[in-house]
């Protein structure tokens, strides 16, 4: 009985599997692929592959899934299986050609496309033309203008066979969109919707055009239309999240992407990569850092992810991790593809790792790449100062101050003044510290440094140039003597010396050196001076 029961269970299971296979179709799998439910698509295609009548076609779309999830080796396995299952089925030759296009082997791809189209013509099937066009679009996405023209030619051939097919017109719109021909793109998306009001992908692509034109309301309307037709259409939420981001609604962008788009679609390397990018762009640096690290454990990430990992690590104060990621990014990314911000972040990261001399060279590259980035000059000046390259610091700050449209900060004049001070350019230093005081009247260090610059200009301390600034240091510093001890000690010593040497006021001099002892009871210099001032030979004026 047990054997019979087990056999009946197996038969029942087979009937269920068969029922699933017959209840699902290639179109169901294609729909699942479109809405990025890849695991569902795989399940449908795996069942359909068991039926010889649909095996070759299911292998093609399974390969297509793996292409979309950036797994070309797996895609090749299925395209090859598809050819083996039915050499007369056209699309798997297109799939093999797509892989050649991705590897820039155009000469190898062309005979495969030609074979597919010849087989398709027997069946009056538009798909070999359309899928061949999509192969060339892959090259067009990398900037190959000739490939885009080739793609458009193939889609026009598909139109001759399927002139009432919304998918064909949407694909043509996609090609024109990549070509940056918005008028032809929108015309074809509109034609697709004239043919099928429920062809959701055309609405999403319309939105892309309007977003590119920075028309928020026009971009929002087609997405809302798509969602009203199908509230579970994931790609619409993806583009809604991007629209929110582009309009500065960062919290909404993250929320929609995470809780709508990702919830409705299967996690993939592409979708999670985009999510990590949105998190970074929304300045959620810790979340971006965590997401990218997870991605790197499961996906073969593009170089840009190392860029965002480095940027995020810098922002959350992880300088060592930032430097490691940035070094990896620079080794993986061609120099021609580096952007100004890469050099800027590398400079900041190196500086955080106490490598200012090397940081300067990267910051200079950023400035050379985009001279309009006047905001980088103060950073260059500070790094040059910290590396004790004082003339370079002076040059950077003076270039920055020459930009009249930029609002200067006290710290900019502070580092400029210090670089001038240590270059023995005391007049420049004095002028710089004067600006520090003007912009920040209660900043005690500004008065202390200006006093030092004037002391250096006043040989022998005969003119008392530093006196008013040290007096201001004492006025501000005595509010909190412990906090301001260092600058107060300098001020007391100067005033003590000035009182005795210039004013000949022994009592005043004693008072200042006694103030030194209040802060540092065993200060040897103060003890020696007071001993001399208290000797019989000392005279008051």
TrEMBL record:
Source superkingdom: Bacteria
TPR repeat placement: 56-89, 166-199, 200-233, 410-443
UniProt cross-references to InterPro entries, sorted A to Z: TPR-like_helical_dom_sf, TPR_rpt
Signal peptide: 1-23
Record Gene3D superfamilies: Tetratricopeptide repeat domain
One Pfam family here: TPR_17
Keywords, ordered alphabetically: Signal, TPR repeat
Record-given protein name: Tetratricopeptide repeat protein
Organism name: Solitalea agri
